[in-house]
Predict the 3D structure of the following.
Amino acid sequence: MSTTTDRTEGARSTAAIPDLRYSDAEEQLRAVVRDLLADRSPPAAVLARVDAGEADDVPLWRALAADLGCAGLLIDESHGGAGASYREAAVVAEETGKAVACVPYLTSAVMATTALLGAGDAELLGGLASGRLTAALAVGFASMPGTEMGSWPVRVGPPEDGDAPGVARLSGTVTGVAGALAADVLLVPGNGVPLRLYVVDATGPGVTRTPLVSLDATRPLADVTLDRVPGRPVASGEDAARAVAAALTAGAGVLASELFGVAEQCLGMTVGYVKERHQFARPVGSFQALKHRLADVWVAVTQARAAARYAAACLATGDPDTPVAVALAKAAAGDAAVLAAQECVQLHGGIGFTWEHPAHLLLKRAKSASMALGTSDRHRAALAGLVDLPPAPGN
């Protein structure tokens, strides 16, 4: 009897584990996205765009968003989207990370879209799905999932004469917003009573977007200042809080997949280089010290892949384990990407330190993304609380 029970419980446990392997559909999506990025966004083109100070590649984004339909992956077919899941969204993020693509995919197609899915605004969802609109969630890119809604800096004031019913006037400055410069609309959490999530025309009067000098020039940040700007509410109270929380959680989870993509690209580039570079009449990759360093990177990248895939699978199914999976993935992938990018620069030797080589773009993306939406240390601290680990002795 006990043996039968044990087998039954074991079968249940096995059935509950999601299949983290890539499906055929995911691999097909990866292939078309990779081909597009290879054609439209090779390293030389990204470097030229950075040199010119043109961070947002609008034609590439239109092709990715509208032609391939990546902007509407998370949006239901009834609103013109693909009706896919966060697993597919994570695959696209892996490829944009590998290419260090200058597109607002994470900020618009994942974070802003997730917030609107929670708010249920059909008109805006249709615009995003078609690629006609690009949106950004007006919160600092360093914001950690779990940030209290009441901490947002935008104040809510009374409407003015002629405003439509329900419209409020918003004032305040949000610092370090990713995707704001490319956005047509902003989703702004308003710190009023009750708490609300507002839609703001990013190009309208009273909206000032000030570009910042950021570590990663391929993902520009901006300070967004609102001066009595009209905002249309799309969610209120607990619905608004849940929408913003879901957006930050999904953003961190999908960003982990992007970081994994960066790490995998760095590892592949480095392995290829040390096989070709010769010293003392032999490939430098045959030296034991380099083998050990690359083995450490491989282990970190492999762990990051598993954690990122699990986070995407949990997001896709709404699994109760999602907060744990996202915290684990963001911490693991952030550390792996930074390690892989650092080793990529170092093991390429002198050429790895030059501006012409793309290694520095990957390093900057790895470092900046590892700090975005919560650092690895903050996610590990959150993870400890989520799984009820006791504090370290002396703390």
Remarks:
- Residues 1-15 have pLDDT under 50 and may be disordered.
- DSSP finds twelve helices and nine strands in the chain.
